[in-house]
Design goal:
The complex is a heterodimer of chains A (about 350) and B (about 300).
Chain A lengths: L4 E10 L2 E11 L4 E5 L6 H9 L6 E6 L2 E2 L5 H4 L1 E4 L11 H10 L9 H14 L15 H14 L4 E5 L7 H18 L2 E6 L2 H7 L2 E6 L2 E6 L1 H6 L4 H6 L4 E8 L2 E4 L2 E5 L7 E7 L4 E4 L7 E11 L2 E7 L7 E5 L10 E6 L3 E4 L2
Parallel strand pairs in A: 3-8, 3-9, 6-7, 7-8
Antiparallel strand pairs in A: 1-2, 1-4, 4-5, 9-10, 11-12, 11-14, 12-13, 14-20, 15-19, 16-17, 16-19, 17-18
Chain B lengths: L1 H5 L4 H7 L2 H4 L3 H30 L3 H10 L1 H34 L5 H13 L2 H12 L6 H6 L8 H12 L1 H14 L2 H8 L4 H30 L2 H7 L9 H10 L3 H36 L3
Classes of the chains: A alpha+beta (about 350), B mainly alpha (about 300).
């Protein structure tokens, strides 16, 4: 069972702090959407508003065409996985998972046998068979996470919401669980929203990513969309790494220190602008010509799988970061030319 | 005392590990310090406690039993048990309610409410009793109205219960509040999103999370309720066999030079203290293990 989630102009204020300033988002049935943003961007608040744990000050949330505020927390049937799981420590794994089924009104409550069968099926789904009698305190972080998910799935939720699902886990477990969550989502088909501040997680896992900043949604799109075609300076700076140059635009050309450095035909505006370029979109060119961008290599260091050069450019406060192909090995102190292959230009309003 | 109980047990092995060698004190210094502490405890706590039982049994078992089976003494025991039986459950409910609303909700005046809960600890018990006399006594604010309607509060059971509730109010709330605060609200929110009603959430999630704290609070609350002297003595009127609780009865007997009977009743109170102490230690044991076993997440 999958429902569409519609969020329309939701606002939420905590005292003087505006957590959400008019957020609208459409989530399609069975879609997996990431809410990505820095801390304080309002992503968790948005998740809690959808769950009904916070009352929005304005706007509304709809599940298909049911207005969420008409539903009590109990009737919303939201599967919510808390950041620190909030497992019931005095209950066993099986009792944790069965909690939602046992909490139903007597008329809707499944029989004890049925509950046992469903708990068994969920344990199977989250690969925890054999651990049903353990208590949360006896489980590893990854196992707790999976119990929390099974407990949320037990109530056959309309929508599955996960708050920083991998936030409390170490890097290795995170990677395994990402794959596994993707798999569970494919098998169960719940409309799913998850909150994360980790862009890798969002880009790898989600069908679409909503980037939040300062209580607003900056951009919604597929991972490729938001990464390759950022619509706002914030998205550009937040997703991946970028160098920022203050440029002047005239006649479809971006000028840095009066030298043309990048043809930006899409950018019609004239005047002062910001140019964002990713380290992998800059090439070192052999002879530094008088017209292009040039600088002095200040350092070369390893950055995971790639090598990266930091180039000091006259007129640029921060060093320009450039990813190097394996064949290129500039010496520190060498003067190099820089060619920008791809960049995004935003007028600085 | 409550803070010490709330420290999770890992502190203990740490203390054991950092023994004399680490701190650099000689064995002699250690022995002297321990000896001083033991002598002090013996003088201040051990001797008086022993003297209670020695005095009570001075004239033998028969006289001891006689002192206890005196109708007035029995009435005092009954009254004490009755007062505790009313005051303790009332304070469990109030304490849980107060701790719940302070720990789980944000509202104006929360700090004020928190310090109000502690008020009985900082007010002299005699004042606590006097307050009720001022309110409900014959010359008090509500005195004339109460008299006209034939309701007796001061110098009767209701006054004693009220004063006891006032004095023992903080015990349960104080034990439960830090536990609830450290647990936060995520467990309750999880239960609610899973479809549980507020009532069910309280019984199946909130209460089990704090049950050891509640038990501990009940124990302390009960010991104080049975042993309270100051507040109760102001409101009781000391009508023998009617409004004297055990501590008051002890004082009356003692003032009448009926030493053996006084110490016989006192021995019951001392026994209560010892039982409380043992139960408290057992609970702390259990309670600390419980906290540390689950404090990891």
């Amino acid at each position: 069972m999958s429902v569409a989630v519609t969020i329309e102009g939701v606002t939420k204020q905590f005292g003087a702090f505006a957590a959400l300033r008019g957020v609208s988002l459409e989530v399609e049935p069975a879609e997996l959407v990431a809410l990505l943003g820095p801390s304080g961007s309002g992503k968790t608040t948005l998740l809690r508003v959808i769950a009904g744990l916070e009352e929005p000050d304005g706007g509304e949330v709809r599940f298909d065409d049911v207005e969420a505020h008409r539903l009590s927390l109990r009737d919303r049937r939201i599967g919510f996985v808390f950041q620190h799981y909030a497992l019931f420590r005095h209950l066993s794994v099986a009792d944790n998972i069965a909690y939602g089924l046992r909490a139903r009104p007597r008329a809707e409550r499944p029989s004890a046998d049925e509950i046992r069968r469903r708990v068994g099926a969920l344990l199977d789904l989250v690969q925890l068979v054999g651990l049903e009698k353990r208590f949360p305190g006896q489980l590893s972080g990854g196992q707790r996470q999976r119990v929390a998910l099974a407990r949320a799935l037990a109530i056959e939720p309309r929508v599955l919401l996960l708050d920083e699902p991998f936030g409390a886990l170490d890097a290795r477990v995170r990677k395994d669980l990402r794959q596994w969550l993707r798999d569970v989502h494919r098998r169960t088909g719940h409309t799913t929203l998850f909150v994360t501040h980790d862009q890798d997680e969002a880009l790898e896992l989600a069908d679409r990513v909503a980037v939040l900043n300062d209580g607003r949604i900056e951009q919604v799109g597929t991972p490729d969309d938001v990464y390759d075609h950022p619509e706002t300076p914030f998205v550009c700076g937040f997703l991946g790494e970028s160098n920022r140059l203050d440029v002047e635009v005239a006649g479809g050309q971006a000028f840095f220190n009066d030298k043309p450095i990048f043809a930006a035909p899409a950018h019609n505006a004239r005047g002062v602008a910001n140019l964002y370029v990713r380290p992998q979109d800059v090439r070192l060119v052999e002879p530094p010509n008088a017209h292009g961008l040039a600088g002095v290599v200040a350092a070369v260091r390893r950055h995971g799988a790639i090598r990266r050069a930091e180039v000091a450019v006259t007129g640029l406060a921060r060093r320009l970061e450039v990813d190097l192909p394996s064949a290129v090995a500039p010496a520190v102190g060498e003067t190099v030319g820089l060619k920008i292959i791809r960049a995004t230009v935003f007028g600085s309003g | 005392m409550s803070e010490a109980a709330l420290t999770p047990s890992p502190a203990r092995p740490a203390r054991r590990a950092g023994g004399a060698r680490v701190r650099g004190e000689s064995r002699l210094v250690q022995a002297i310090l321990i000896a001083i502490a033991l002598v002090f405890l013996l003088l201040v706590l051990g001797l008086p406690l022993a003297s209670v039982f020695v005095e009570a049994f001075r004239k033998g078992w028969d006289v001891y039993l006689e002192g206890l089976s005196d109708p007035d003494a029995l009435a005092a025991v009954r009254l004490t048990l009755l007062v505790a039986a009313i005051a303790v459950p009332v304070n469990v409910v109030f304490g849980l309610a107060a701790a719940w609303c302070i720990a789980k909700y944000e509202f104006r005046g929360k700090t004020l409410l928190t310090s109000l809960i502690d008020l009985p600890f900082s007010v002299s018990p005699v004042i606590s009793g006097l307050v009720y006399v001022l309110l409900f006594g014959a010359q008090g604010w509500f005195g004339p109205w109460l008299k006209a309607n034939g309701v007796e509060i001061i110098f009767a059971l209701p006054g004693i219960v009220l004063a006891t509730i006032f004095v023992t109010f903080p015990f349960v709330a104080r034990e439960v509040l830090p536990l609830m605060q450290s647990h936060g609200t995520a467990d309750e929110e999880a239960a609610l999103t899973l479809g549980a009603s507020g009532w069910r959430t309280f019984w199946t999630i909130t209460l089990p999370n704090v049950k050891w704290g509640v038990l501990y609070g009940v124990l302390l609350c009960n010991a104080r309720a049975m042993g309270e002297f100051g507040a109760v003595s102001v409101v009781s009127g000391r009508i023998r066999g009617l409004t004297t609780t055990m501590p008051l009865h002890v004082e009356i007997l003692y003032n009448e030079y009926n030493t053996v009977a006084a110490f016989a009743v006192a021995s019951l109170l001392a026994l209560l203290a010892l039982v409380t102490l043992v139960l408290k230690t057992l609970l702390e044991w259990r309670y600390a293990d419980h906290l540390s076993a689950n404090g990891k997440h």
